[in-house]
Amino acid sequence: MAVSAQPAQDMSAFVGDEEAGGGRVELLVKGARCAGCLGKIERGVKAMPGVGDARLNLTTGKLAVRYDDRRRADPAAVIRTLDGLGYASTLFDPKAALDQSDREGRELILCLAVAGFGAANAMMFTVPVWAGLFGQELGPGARILMYWLSALVATPCALYAGRPFFRSAWASLRRRRANMDVPISIGVLLTLAVSFSETLQHGRHAYFDAAVTLLFLLLIGRWLDHQLRLKAQGAARDLLMIQAPTAARLDEQDREHITPAAQIMPGDRLAVRAGDRIPVDAEVLEGRCDLDNALISGESAPVAVRPGDRVCAGALNLNGRLVLRATARSEDSTVAAIARLMELGAQSRSAYVRLADKAAAVYVPLVHTLALGTFLGGWMLGLSPREAILRAAAVLIVTCPCALGLAVPAVQITASGLLFRRGVLVKSGAALERLAEVDHVVLDKTGVVTEGRPRLVEGRDDLLPLAAALARASRHPLAMALAEAAGAGPAAADAVETPGMGVEGTVGGLPARIGRAAFVGHGATAGDGAELWFVRDGEAAVRFGFADTIRPEATSVILALRARGLQVELLSGDVETETARTARAVGVDAWRSGLTPQDKAAAVDALKAAGRKVLMIGDGLNDAAALAKAHCSMAPGTAVEASQNAADLVFCSGDLKAAPAAYDLARRARSRAMENFALSAAYNLIAAPAAMLGLVNPFVAAIAMSGSSLVVMLNALRLAWPQRTRT
Amino acid sequence: MTIVLMLVPITIVMGLIGLAAFWWTLKHGQYEDPAGDAERILLNDDDRPL
């Protein structure tokens, strides 16, 4: 929800602290693309009184405005200025903006730089030695000098750049498990140790360059994986930030202070205008109006509230101004039961073992047994202990899972980059792996299969223009749907809306009313769907019935999912008639209606217990628990915060076609990752026996390792190649 | 051989200078906004990084 600037509102809650009493305001600016925009915005904002500096980050779209004096900071004025320049903007909560510094990424990139430096410089000394390996002139003295020099460069670099791996390996070993970092760390440290011992003994098998090159390649994979997570999470956070509920808190003089919802305390008085969402659970003090609870309960019909009623966070105020008293803080406002269910779901999901870790579980013991076998076997078959140790070390070095470490991240960064361009955010690489395993799709009805917006389905066409003349005066969704069905036309000049009831005015020379059955003096309601009643003086009341609009692409998307061998099911919190009609319209046989959030989560659990891997697509608060419990989950960008947090993928395009597209790409990413594993395995099948037979020298090791990593990377990039489309 | 003994330290020092320069750029946030930096060069005002 964008904060629109109104002079009477105080927005000082959005000002962050800077050094020496300065203030800082951060905004997300939409539509800035080029140097022209950049110059215009920065010049315009800098010219404002009190502004010390303004800098727009074109990559992230964030504008940072610095004030020399915190008290002169005026976020509303910045929004007005930007608005005057033609750019819409949204304020950032300063607390949320703070925790964005990316320490891990900086450490990785620095390690990568050090490893790159080490690899390049160690190579300088190693290439002459390689020349010597093939019989060219290089005396033993010169060779040892070269080895010492490359040791001088490579050892500190490897020890520094290897820290992320050593740390992770150590943490994994302490939990008595072995992840991929264990063989990497052992490989690197062993390579250094063997190389030192060889150099001291004037031998030929020193691999200083290999140790640091290996780390360089692995760090590329690690950094890609990190970038993927950072980008997706940052984008997901920005998306939520734009919609982040802000609230207008009232002080004693009834002045409105715009505040991030997180800062609302129980007991605060809040004003909610028509078209805004209720920020926290609250009780109505003043005002009567209709609330749209679709995101909370999935129910499509609006609910009328009056003073004394309790309202839930996330409900949309359709008409009229409400004054509320907050009864809970923002983070407590999600119903406790839903929050608890979500935590459970998140726990069960963290037990998921990622592809790379599955591979490591097989690979690590295998390689270490092989190395031990080489040493013992070589010794028994009459090799000298030194030669046997060298061969065992060679096995560990050439099988060091360099390509394996790149196999999955390289694929996933390509895949999520492709999805990102289509407006789908992938929260983590593991989410893609889980999506590829899905065999059952559970859809929420409201807001996913349907647009969450009513459409006129029943009524008298001859009276429609008359009814629409009244309906145009209201922002109620049913009235707006009626007006839309009638097309453009005049509104009744004297129309007066009674919030929560209806509109009255003069049409065609007669006083008329449109609204609830009781408002038009009609006794009972017919049917249980959404309806409006229209009456003209002296005539019988006429009913207009409404139903939620089904997304135009829904049917084809469900067919597409079926074509991929997935079962599709519809779970809704809405009433049976609505759900049944929607299910019939999109061709889904399996549907259930009237489900509470707990029922939905239980349904997902039951499917899981039956051995199915469920993809849940939902947008409401009532779906959050089920989203968290499902094997993989998707939410549209319009979903409530809890659902977006629970979902693995968020599609911002608002187009359901993202679901089969993401599934296809996840499947392709999975096969690419599997191919990469196969390539690594094939490489190891050749390299390991060669090392056991003593055929590997430092040159062969360097070529084989970089070569296999390169092949794996190129195979991952193949994902971005255009594909034959399947519908 | 003397030439090697001279050239090797020079090479390593030059490499270290490059590494230090990279560290400096990282520290000063020069990779925070690649899209903006590409456009900023077209602006005429005397613009200094924050």
Overview of this protein structure:
The complex is a heterodimer of chains A (727) and B (50). Chain A is α+β, with helices and mostly antiparallel strands and 727 residues long. Chain A is 50% helix and 17% strand. In chain A, the strands form five sheets. In chain A, strands 15-27-26-25-16-23-24 form a seven-stranded mixed sheet, with helices on both faces. In chain A, strands 7-6-8-14-9-12 form a six-stranded antiparallel sheet, with no helix packed on it. In chain A, a hairpin with a 2-residue loop joins β19 and β20 (510-515). Chain A is elongated. Chain A starts with 15 loop residues before the first strand and ends in a 10-residue tail after the last helix. Chain B has two helices and no strands. Chain A binds chain B through residues 34-35, 38-39, 43, 53, 55-60, 64, 66, 106, 109-110, 113-114, 117, 120-121, 124-125, 142, 149, 153, and chain B through 1, 8, 11-12, 15-16, 18-19, 22-23, 26, 32-36, 39-43, 45, 50.
Globular, elongated, flat, extended or rod-shaped: what is the shape of chain B?
elongated
Q: What is the N-to-C succession of helices and strands of chain B?
A: HH
- Beta strands of chain B, count: 0
Supply Rg of chain B: 18 Å
Derived from helix and strand composition plus strand pairing, the structural class of chain B reads mainly alpha
Spans of at least 5 consecutive residues with low confidence of chain B? none
- CATH third-level topology of one domain in chain A: Rossmann fold
Strand content of chain B: under 5%
- Structural class designation of chain A: alpha+beta
Helical fraction of chain A equals: 40-55%
CATH architecture of one domain in chain A: 3-Layer(aba) Sandwich
The largest inter-chain interface, given as chain pair and residues per side, is: A-B, 27 and 23 residues
Shape of chain A: elongated
Mean model confidence by pLDDT of chain B: 81
Indicate the low-confidence ranges of chain A by residue numbers.
Answer: 1-8
